[in-house]
Amino acid sequence: PGLSDANMMETSATVPLPPAQDQRYLVVGGGGVGESRLSSRRTRIVDLKARDPRFTDGPSLDEGTRYPQTSILPDDSVLVSGGSRDYRGRGDSDILQARLYDPGTDTFRRVADPLVGRDYHAGSILLPDGRVMFFGSDPLYGDKAGTRPGAFEQRIEIYTPPYLYRDSRPSLSGGPRTVARGASATFTSRHAASIRKARLIRPSASTHVTDVDQRSVALDFTASGDTVTVTVPKNRNLVRSGWYMLFVDDDRGTPSKARWVKVL
Ligand SMILES: [Cu+2]
Questions:
Q1: pLDDT in tens, 18-36
Q2: What residue spans in the chain does CATH classification 2.60.40.10 cover?
Q3: What is the distance between the terminal CA atoms of the chain, rounded to a whole angstrom?
Q4: Among 19, 129, 180, 194, whose CB has the most other CB atoms within 10 angstroms?
Q5: Is 35 exposed, middle or buried (0-12, 13-18, 19+ CB in 10 A)?
Q6: Residue range(s) occupied by CATH 2.130.10.80 in the chain
């Protein structure tokens, strides 16, 4: 209940808002079924921990947006970028805009625009150094009039979030390669005293505006001297087995580079 533009779920994006423990989801944009010209400017949020979960609208996009790319960042913001107004970029309708969504304030902030249009068969993934890679796009046509077939986009773009323009970032090194669910692991950081968050972020598998692996799990942690000890939650449904990127964020929300950790 409450889902706005419910007839435009095709080509919308869904992302579990960080941290995954909150069980809140953001649904972005979308369009009508098939080659429909309809597209949605809406974002919708649902809290699955509520007694009677229902969708409420979040901030709107400037234009109706199909195929928006969404990537969870280690500072708990979500990058929403690209997409097109019409089906597969038809009519030269790629949208060269990017935003950061803040789950705490439910607001968008415009950030540096992408330079390459991304519509069908495009994706974005968070890199272990805190940047985001964009790839693909498969426009139906190669011109505005729709007289020439489109060509698959082969340029890759790398987005550097504002947090990487600060003068320092916390270090993170050492620690084990594997951690069992429910167990703790100790890593080294010269900035241990300023660490405020620890996040396990699963590497992405992004296609068709869908990233089935994307999630950011909050970890309890303690800091002592130059060490940070994190504890992986016991819940198997929250933390599936496999590889994760472990990030720690400092008191300004600046993330470290990730350490790769395999959860057993
Ligand atoms: Cu396809």
A1: 999 999 999 999 999 999 9
A2: 167-263
A3: 37
A4: 19
A5: exposed
A6: 6-164
> Ligand 1 centre and the CA of 159: distance in Å?
24
Architecture of 6-164 per CATH? Answer: 7 Propeller (2.130)
Give 81 Cα–ligand 1 centroid separation in angstroms. 19
- Give, in order, the Cα–Cα distances in Å from 147 to each of 53, 134, 140: 46, 27, 10
Tokens standing for residue 125:
């993934």
CB 136 within 8 A of CB 123: yes
**pTM score above 0.90:** yes
State in Å: Cα 193 to ligand 1 middle: 47
The 10s digit of each residue's pLDDT in 53-71 is 999 999 999 999 999 999 9
Q: Compute the distance from residue 138 Cα to the ligand 1 centre, in Å.
A: 9
Residue 254 neighbours by CB under 8 Å, 6+ apart:
75, 163, 164, 166, 168, 169, 170
How many angstroms separate the alpha carbon of residue 233 from the centre of ligand 1? 35
**121 C-alpha to center of ligand 1: Å?**
6
CATH fold for domain 167-263: Immunoglobulin-like (2.60.40)
